[in-house]
Amino acid sequence: MEKKIVGILVCMLLIATSAIPVAGTVEINKGSEIGSQYMPVLIPHPIYEPEDIDLKDAAFHGSYGRYHGEWWYFEGIFDNGYSIVLGAAICSKGSRGLCILALHIYNDTELEFFLNKGVSFKDFDASEDFPFIKIYGKQIMSLDRERYNSTGEWVYNVTIEIDGQEANLQFIGTTKGYKGEILRGWYGPVLPKATVEGTLILNGDQINVSGLGYHEHGWEIPIPPREWGFYWGKIVSDSFCLFWAKMMRTHWWEQTRAAILSLDQSGYINIKPENFKFKAIRYIFNNRRIIPTKFRLNVSDPDRSIYINATMETLNIHHVGLRIPHYWKYHVRVNGQICYGSSTEIIKDEIQIVELTRFR
Q: What is the pTM of this model?
């Protein structure tokens, strides 16, 4: 059973890796039969319905009846060209389970460090009332409760060190977080958009960083998932953040899609699936798989005066995979615009992270 749990966590936090260069691969025509598997039709399924998230939602949930997955994922895209993914994932049942810490660092979209660390569950300690995690008695993640109680701000302090490489970061949310049911569990962008600053210590050198951040928490996710896979990503402008996702039941059938527009220092708007379109428009053949490398996203919601158009073009892909699942982390260049009411904000050459995960 322990080996099974380890395997699940390896998949969840991307233990095996290979870099996929975009150049030098064979491009697939967007109208080809094999490419069409990435453009499935929508069939009736439950819609992601966001609702406000609270401190207990963002805390540790544990599991008492079955093994389940839970994770805390942080992402930063910095002004100096560095970007980072870090966090923790667990598979647990009551007092049994395992935790893996992750520290993945990119420089100019190229993978520089891919570090993961397995931790016995007896060395994992977390609060079930508010976001707080200790590993080996050392705090790695905590919400600033004093600041939350006085201002209502969600501010996370995150410190992870693996094999001499270290990240010490503070994430300050600028948009309201939410949660919703998905994958027969719960999934919540706690900080859909945040500012992030702090330091990286890489090979003994301290690097000051600042930029845009993101944090999500997933819990009570059954293992293994039954879905074929999913896409997700974000589009960020000065005052807005669009979180989007597309869940796939099979190659051909779409389970559900979601698009939530967050407004800085305000609330969020759930966009109906019929008003949101996401499509892959370019593919490459690599490692015996067809994967998309360019995407187009459109939102048209005239009832609420929301119009969003964007293209996402791949700069680099970090491929992670055992036999199942396969996972692609994209750095993409985003161009487009977000219009809401009388406001129009242009997005020009913004770097963001997009993900594609396949369970089958």
A: 0.89
